[in-house]
Amino acid sequence: MNPPFRVGISPDFYADLKGKFEAVVEEHLCGANLEVGPMPEQPGKVATPEALDCFDAILALGLRITAESLRGVRRLALVARWGVGYDTIDVAALTQADVALALAPNAVRRPVAEAILTFILALAKNLMEQDRLVRSGRWRENLSRLGRNLDALALGSVGCGNIARELFRLARPLGFRRLLAYDPYVDPGQLEGSGIELTDLDTILRESDIVAINVPLNEQTRGMIGEPELRRMKPSAWLVNTARGAVVDQHALVRALKEGWIAGAGIDVYATEPPPKDDPLRNLDNVILTPHALAWTEELIREVGAEACGNILAVARGEAPPGLLNREVLERPGFQAKLASRRRAEATR
Asked: What residue ranges do the domains of the chain occupy?
């Protein structure tokens, strides 16, 4: 008799998404001849080899998986991320261990793009100050500044991938003066007819009224927006970061907001999450802070869950997952042997 395909759910689901993810997992995975359950608690949110080797697939939220986590691991075939970020995972080590990493890019595209637009509208219309005025018993004559029309603004994106292109698609009918993007990995021909101007980073920083961060966190992007970059932005410009906190040098950002290098910011992600209570960002009036959840909608939870579970079901059938990131794992005999074992198990059901 073939052993069941075991799926471990990373422990942080039961803290960060308790009451929100269970129905989606039950709908897609339970009753599919899988054994699904929580992983044991992992010290420091770092996976241990002992835990990983108990499962064929891991449904991961923010679990850290390092090279040490994979030492001696033989059984595991898939890490399915609930989302698209993978900065907590050593992708090269996964590949060397014959483990696939699969993401859920389709489900996050629209919700994150809408979250960016939410920040843009709130910043452009000076929503924070207007709310504070009324709550304090004052009125519009006390406003420090007026809002801005969107058709007067240039929207720039650092990165022009899945989410950024959806942002531009949603932004186009709103009539932004210009749509600018920097992405050295994008072929300009892919953007032909889109109205997006593909340009260099310096132009994005100097000419955009809103600079939105839309890149993954990796060695190339870590700290890529620091003091020199923030100083090149317009004093009237706003920074929006819904990507990863460490892409922006947070110490430099605090100075930029305090000293007026830029007008304000919308921040959903932080170098340390949650940010400590003494984080100086908490005390600034020209920044909107949200708890890495602005894109969390009922639809996102449902659809990202379905996409992540779909990746698990594919591997359980002996197929490559649709959201596969580390495609080089397909060339590894060890991974192909895991898929073949699942196909044999399916054939004998």
From this structure: 5-103+317-347, 109-289
